[in-house]
Amino acid sequence: MRIIAFVAFPALALTLSCAADLMPTAQEGAQVYADNCTACHGPRGAGTGRLTSGQTAPDLTRIADRNGGEFPRARVLSQIDGYGHGKVARDAMPEFGLLLQGESVPVEVDGVMTPTPRPLAALMVFLGSIQKG
Ligand code: HEC
Fold first, then answer.
1. Quick check: CB of 64 below 6 Å from ligand 1?
2. Residue 46 above 90 pLDDT?
3. CA distances in angstroms from 128 to 23, 27, 39, 40, 50, listed in the order given
4. Which domain holds residue 89?
5. Is residue 87 situated within a structural domain?
């Protein structure tokens, strides 16, 4: 019966499957962070001091503070996934290509809804939630 309902109402099936695509929570991102980032950025994002590479992993609770009070989503996403490179030396922070796998969720980046791998989106939400000052 349920299958018939989905065949008859494909829009309904689509709506239901989209429910799973909702934006991840900060808590989900905290887990991804704990699994990948604490070694350099510290358990609470405040950094760990000098790394063996001689570099310092920045305090991730002050990203917005360093950016005139605005959390720069696009920059943060590209920093993590490795597409950005930008000011970051390639070997300073690993590219988290693995995070690119899995389902995508729509994330608003600079006013545009951008399909973003869920673990990456979760990290962004988490980092946004720990901003200070
Ligand atoms: C091997 C150490 C290392 C690991 C692991 C690491 N990072 Fe980094 N990260 C760095 C360093 C070093 C920088 C600064 C590079 C620079 O500014 O040149 C940085 C910079 C950043 C920035 C930019 C901050 C800003 O103010 O622009 C973000 C965001 C960030 N890391 C997030 C993460 C996240 C999220 C993870 C886990 C998925 C992670 N990092 C894992 C070393 C690391």
1. no
2. yes
3. 13, 12, 20, 18, 24
4. 23-129
5. yes
Tell me, yes or no, whether 4 lies in a domain: no
- CATH of residue 96's domain is 1.10.760.10
- Say if ligand 1 is within 6 A of residue 57 CB: yes
* C-alpha 1 – ligand 1 centre gap (Å): 51
- Please tell me the total count of domains within the chain: 1
Kindly report, residue by residue over 69-98, the tens digit of the pLDDT. Answer: 999 999 999 888 875 555 455 557 788 866
Contacts of 99 (CB under 8 A, 6+ apart): 32, 36, 80, 81, 117, 119, 120, 123
CB of 41 sitting under 6 A from ligand 1: yes
Inside any domain, residue 92: yes
pLDDT at site 81: 84
Ligand 1 center–CA 37 separation, angstroms? 8
Q: Residue 35 domain-assigned?
A: yes
How many Å lie between the centroid of ligand 1 and the Cα of residue 45?
A: 10
